Structures are given as structure tokens and as C-alpha cells.
Automatic annotation (TrEMBL):
Pfam families: AtzH-like. InterPro entries: AtzH-like, NTF2-like_dom_sf. Gene3D superfamilies: 3.10.450.50. NCBIfam families: HpxZ. This is Oxalurate catabolism protein HpxZ.
Length: 128
């Protein structure tokens, strides 16, 4: 039976997620690309887009606005299911068109031969 929330793996994934968050708000595309699974099967559902495959994710990032990427995160939760699978969820607040908006994010991480990679991601804003 796999161990749920092995403390060492939770610590490792929390650090990786914080690397992701820093890269996100600094628009560090190389780090963001490196943290995602380089596969046509990776996906990212965003606020206004459904991206299938690494090439679509890269194209989105290269074309998006880099204004107001900063956000305050809360309720960061890392849950591991074995030595190779984890879910990261959180809530955030950020300015969107000068309006403070609340949102949610979830990521599925998988340990592959290349290391831990995001294989599925979802970002959404709450109404109002």
C-alpha cells in the first residue's frame, strides 16, 4: 500500500511548486516550460483557454500579457499518493483589469524519468 503524504515527498513537491510560482510571476518561460511535461498529452485549462500539448502551452505563454502576474496565494495543499504522483491545489487573488479577483489552481504532478513534471493543470477565476 503506497504511503499517502510522505513528508519528504510533500517537502520536495512544495519546493518545486514554489519554484513554479516564482517563475510564473516573473514570466520565466524557460523554467515554466521545464516544469511541464514535454508531451502532446500534457494539458492546461486556463481562464479563457484549453491548451492541449506542450507546443500549445508554450505558444500561449509567449503571447500572453506579462502585466499584473503577481498574485497572493493561500490554502496551498500538496497531497502525494505514492513516490511518483501528487496533486497541488491552491487559491489565489490577483488584479485582473484593475479588479481584485479570486481564483483556484490545481496541478497533477508525476515523477517521470526526467524528474517531477506537471502533467495536467487547471486555473479558474471565481465569478465577481
Amino acid at each position: 500500500m503506497p504511503q499517502i503524504n510522505d513528508p519528504a515527498i510533500v517537502t520536495e513537491l512544495t519546493a518545486l511548486y514554489l519554484t513554479y510560482e516564482k517563475a510564473l510571476v516573473e514570466n520565466d518561460l524557460a523554467t515554466l516550460d521545464n516544469l511541464f511535461w514535454d508531451s502532446p498529452d500534457v494539458l492546461r485549462f486556463g481562464v479563457t483557454e484549453n491548451l492541449y500539448g506542450m507546443e500549445a502551452i508554450k505558444a500561449f505563454r509567449q503571447g500572453r500579457s506579462t502585466k499584473n502576474l503577481e498574485r497572493d496565494i493561500s490554502n496551498l495543499k500538496v497531497v502525494t499518493f505514492d513516490a511518483d504522483t501528487a496533486i497541488v491545489t491552491l487559491e489565489f487573488q490577483r488584479l485582473n483589469n484593475n479588479v481584485l479577483r479570486a481564483g483556484r489552481q490545481s496541478q497533477v504532478w508525476r515523477k517521470l524519468p526526467q524528474g517531477w513534471k506537471i502533467v495536467s493543470a487547471h486555473v479558474s477565476l471565481l465569478p465577481g
